[in-house]
Amino acid sequence: MDNTEFDDIPGTRVFTAERAKQGYHLNQFCMSLMKPENRERFKASERAYLDEWPMTEAQKQAVLDRDYNAMLGLGGNIYFLAKIFATDGLSYLQAVSTMTGMTVEDYQQMMLAGGRSPDGWRSVKDGT
Amino acid sequence: MARITAGLTTSHIPAIGAAIDLGKTEEPYWKPLFAGYEWTKAWAADHRPDVVILVYNDHASAFTPELVPTFALGCADEFQPADEGYGPRPVPVVRGHGDLAAHLAQSLILDEFDLTLMYKLDVDHGLTVPLSLVYGQPGEWPVQVIPLAVNVVQYPPPTGHRCLRLGQAIRRAVQSFGEDLTVHVWGTGGMSHQLQGPRAGFINKEFDTAFLNRLVKDPEGLAKVPHLEYVREAGSEGIELVMQLIMRGALGSEVEELYRFYHVPGSNTAVGHIVLRPSDSSQP
């Protein structure tokens, strides 16, 4: 199948082999944060630590901004990016909510009420 | 002869593991979720297999961006709980069954399933959370475990059809193992969830319910569902559901549903759990 079909799904970036290639160094940087000594060095100077990696400037800036939607757009994948928010002491729920434009409290409330309804989130083209 | 006597599916949400490890299972948020596994814990105490073949996915713990095996079989005698960035979960080391794993590798590869074989594999929440849900917090896990890690992180993951066929091949392989063992097959992950982008928090109870119904009654039809439909209807991370078809294939043509539980939310995810056993009339 043609991967462009995934682009019809609203608010979603599917982590294809092409994106894995684009995000390789970003995701490798994330993996490095599984080691405590690397987390300490990153926290001591985020910019200096990022400069050790052959990432694009846009990728580095997205990490510094903790802009997870931007990181996804630059080849990041959530399970790798999780190492960044784990370093920040955030849970999946807290970090994931930042991508939705909702406050953590509103997002948590939506989940308790049964989650985001599929209606309106199935297809850009069909508006369903 | 070894035989497969039951199968189950369950979500493997990391926050469930954290709730167990931190003693939060009685808190109002978590209590209804854990209550849904009480039936299974009692059943599992009375129906303990020698070996569990546990189908799960690694979450950037053992597999880095450098290596993306579609199917990876754990052939070692033990597997350490992975450090996922918060320190390893305080759970027992997972004991493998190297002889059955070696037999599975031999049988499945000659049956044309080109597995990656893992002789060192740290296992993350995808594998240890289901063990905790079913067996609680013992000093040692009461079963030996053969991990089967499936790539569902980088697209494309295997198709549902391929997963169902792999399960069927696992059934043949287990049945041709000479030792007298009982085996359960677990398919973990799901149900609907999305952990990324503005659509995060996506839950589709209607799809999940239909998925479980078809998993029981119509696995061949369910195996035809394309990836696009999973992403559209179950969320980008809901694609994990294809792994449950491996479990289903391993149980043979007909199954009996013993128990089902469904609950929203577990963190960002719909929790789904079903326990099955092969019908007496089930064909290999």
Brief synopsis:
The complex is a heterodimer of chains A (128) and B (284). With 128 residues, chain A is mostly helical.
Keywords for this structure?
heterodimer; A: 128 residues; mainly alpha; Protocatechuate 4,5-dioxygenase, Chain A; 9 helices; B: 284 residues; alpha/beta; Protocatechuate 4,5-dioxygenase, Chain B; 8-stranded mixed β-sheet; two-stranded antiparallel ribbon; 10 helices; 10 strands
Architecture overview:
The complex is a heterodimer of chains A (128) and B (284). Chain A has 128 residues and is mostly helical. Chain A folds into two domains: 14-88, Dioxygenase LigAB, LigA subunit (Protocatechuate 4,5-dioxygenase, Chain A, Orthogonal Bundle); 89-119. In chain A, 54% of the residues lie in helices and 0% in strands. In chain A, α2 packs parallel to α7. The longest helix of chain A is centred in the middle third of the chain and has 10 residues, at 78-87. Chain A is globular. Chain B has 284 residues and is α/β, with parallel strands linked by helices. Chain B has a single domain (3-278), classed as 3-Layer(aba) Sandwich (Protocatechuate 4,5-dioxygenase, Chain B), CATH 3.40.830. Chain B has an eight-stranded mixed β-sheet, with helices on both faces. In chain B, α1 (14-21) packs across α5 (125-135) and α6 (160-175) packs parallel to α10. The two termini of chain B are 14 Å apart. The interface between A and B is large, with 54 and 45 residues.
Give the helices and strands, then pairings.
The complex is a heterodimer of chains A (128) and B (284).
Chain A: H1 17-22, H2 24-32, H3 36-44, H4 46-50, H5 57-65, H6 68-73, H7 78-87, H8 92-97, H9 104-112
Helix pairs in contact in A: 2-7
Chain B: E1 3-10, H1 14-21, H2 31-35, H3 38-46, E2 51-56, E3 71-74, E4 78-79, E5 94-95, H4 98-110, E6 116-118, H5 125-135, E7 144-150, H6 160-175, E8 182-188, H7 205-217, H8 219-222, H9 227-234, H10 244-250, E9 255-266, E10 269-278
Parallel strand pairs in B: 1-8, 2-7, 2-8, 3-6
Antiparallel strand pairs in B: 1-10, 3-7, 4-5, 9-10
Helix pairs in contact in B: 1-5, 4-6, 6-10
